[in-house]
Design goal:
2 copies of one chain form a homodimer. Chain A has 159 residues and is α+β, with helices and mostly antiparallel strands. Chain A is 49% helix and 20% strand. The first copy, chain A, starts with 6 loop residues before the first helix and ends in a 5-residue tail after the last helix.
Chain lengths: 159, 159
Amino acid sequence: MLNKLIKEDISYLAGYIDGNGSILAQIVYIPESKYKFQIRVSITIFQKSNKSWFIQQIYNLLKIGTIRNRSDNMSELTIVGNTPVKNLLTILLPYLKIKKPIANLVLKIIDNSLQIKDRNHFLEVCKLVDEVAEHTESRKRKITTEYVENYYKNNSFLN
Amino acid sequence: MLNKLIKEDISYLAGYIDGNGSILAQIVYIPESKYKFQIRVSITIFQKSNKSWFIQQIYNLLKIGTIRNRSDNMSELTIVGNTPVKNLLTILLPYLKIKKPIANLVLKIIDNSLQIKDRNHFLEVCKLVDEVAEHTESRKRKITTEYVENYYKNNSFLN
């Protein structure tokens, strides 16, 4: 669907995301995964629930992501995962202004995530996630590169 | 300048305004004016002051409006007045989604404002301003149609 979008729709969406969206990368703890942690990338657009028709309209346009009506009277459409986020960011990139640096960082994270060689390489990618967090001023962030490093040190018996 | 904008710039701006802008109509008390009140229409875009380069960039694109760096670490570009607001809304209208109904109302207000015949006609236009306020959920609004009507009743000695 994304390659059928017209330029005006893409630039509108870039403007909306610059104004009221988020592009995010997070380190999440997945104990059964190879490196015990994984990088989660996402794009979210927000709107008040009384205008959730707008969120539905954007979903109909993109045909990707999940709609959620939150308890605080906000609705959101979230696109999660390396492939859909990469596809959407690639077409948005030429039009983004405010969030262009984050989009570039997240694209770099995705490209690296797809070919992680070892723990040191994974930690390098985590550092890029720390950089994203500096842009987004994430306050409640718990899992940083330092957190993962300490985890590896304290669980050195794990492969 | 506005007629030199390319479609992608206009649709980007529509997306940004839908996400983080405002389109407004207000009744303001101007005792020296013919009807003692006037309608003030405006378009504003907001961004945190640490990204005020963005506000400057939009100003450079439009070449209209006034930049203000507020004390609460927000910067804004505001376009005020019938002619500039009408010109900008007219080109944004095909691309606006969330704020399209407000844009249509404000355009109707501007067209009426330019040819007000008497106090009753002015009060009719004030009612359109009340409608805009319903969309924007303005809480601290003091001057409504009712307020102007009461003012006229209590000051009937005025022409």
